[in-house]
Amino acid sequence: MFSITTVILAAGKSTRFKATSSKLVYPLCGLPIISHVYAIAKKISGKKVIVVCNKDNIKELKSILKECTFVTQNLQKGTADAIEQAKKKIKSNNVLVLFGDTPLITLSSIRKLIKNYLSSKVKASLIAFRTNKPKGYGRLVIKNNALEEIVEEINLNNYQKKISLCNSGILIAEKKTLFENTKNIKTNIIKKERYLPDIFKLLHINKLKTNYIECVEDEMLGINTLEDYNKVQSILQKKYIEKFINLGVNFLKPKTCYLSFDTKIEQNVIIESNVTIKEKTIIKKDSIIKSNSYLEGVTIGENCNIGPSARIRPNSIIDKNSKVGNFVEIKNSKIGKKVSIAHLSYVGDADVGNNVNIGAGTITCNYDGNKKHKTVIKDNVFIGSNSSLIAPIILEANSKVGAGSVITKNIPKGSLALERSDLQILRNKRTK
What we know:
The protein is 18% helix and 28% strand. The protein is an alpha/beta fold and 432 residues long. The chain has 2 domains: 217 residues, Spore Coat Polysaccharide Biosynthesis Protein SpsA, Chain A (Alpha-Beta Complex); 169 residues, Hexapeptide repeat proteins (UDP N-Acetylglucosamine Acyltransferase, domain 1, 3 Solenoid). The longest helix is centred in the middle third of the chain and has 21 residues.
C-alpha cells in the first residue's frame, strides 16, 4: 500500500535575507513563505508532514504551522543530515522532500513527480529544470539516458558547468532505500556538509533505478535574499492577476496592483492603477476600484464605486450600489445600500443604513481615549459637510444633520439637528 510522508527542510539560518526573524515567516502575498509550501504538503500527506527546523526558528514556525511534526537540526551539516533528523518520525513507505523557501512549486508538479515515481517503479525520482543561467545550481549528469549523479556547483568541472539541466532539490524516494544510502553520503570537503542529492550517485553505483521529471524554471526559484523575495512575489502577483483577467476582471495597469493569496474578485470588476488588496477581501461583480485605494479584510458589494485613494480597513462591509470616494477611510463598519461617502470622511465602528448621504469632512468620533463606541446611522439620513458625530450615538431614519454640526445626542426620526455657535463679527482695531 502506497503511503507518503512529506519532509519540509527549513533549518537554514537565513543569513543572506537580512531580516530580524526567519525568512520563512516573512509574508509573501499574505502568507508566510513556508505556508505556501506547507499547503501543498498537506494536500499530499495530510497530517504526515515533518518540518526540519533549527533551534532559532522552531518557535516561530510552530506558531504558524499546525497539524505537523517538528524536528530540530542542531548543527548545519547539510540536507542529508537534515533528512536523517526526521528518520524516526517517518512511518510511511515513501518520503517526499520539499524546501520551505521554494514557495512557487505547484501541486500539479508534485503530483506529476509522484505519478512518474510510481509508474516507473524507481527507487527515487526528482524534479529538474533547464535554465540559461545555471550558476549556483547542481547539475544532472545524464549518460545513456540514465541519471548518473548530481554535481554541486562547487565541484563542477569545465564540461559540467555547461550543463543546463539543474537540480531543484525536490525529490521522492522509497524510505528504506533513502536511509540505507544517506548514511554513506560523504561530507563535502569545501563546505563541510553532506548533500542529499549525492544519493543519486550512490543509487546509480548500486544499480538501483532512478529518474527525473522536468518542470519550468520559475517553480524552482528559492528565496535566499530580498532580491529573490521580490522576484518571487512579482511572479506570484502576475499569476494571481492573470487568473482574474481570465475570469473577466479588468486590470487597467496590472503591474502596479497587489493581490493577496485569498483575494476574491467577481466578473466585470474594474481595478485601476496602484490598488492594494490585502487578505480576506471580496469584491463583487460590476464594481470599480479606483487608483491608489487600499482594501484589507473587507467585502465590497455589487456595483460599488470605491476611490480614488480610499482606505477600507478590516471587518468592513460595503453593500451594493454604494460610493466611497477620495480620501475616505472606513474601519470596522457596515455600510448599507445606495450610500454616498464621497470624500474626505472617516467612518469607524459604525452601522450605516440604506440611502444615506455622508457629507465631506464628516467624522464618527468613535474613541474617547479609553474605548471604542458605536455610531448608528439609520435609513435615509442626510449628514451635512464637516460634521462630527460623538459616539455612542444613534441618528434615526429620515433625520438630517446640518453642515458643521457637532452632534452629541441621539437624533429622533425625521428631525433636523443643528449645533452651531452664533456668528460674531468683530471690528478689527488697528493702532497707528
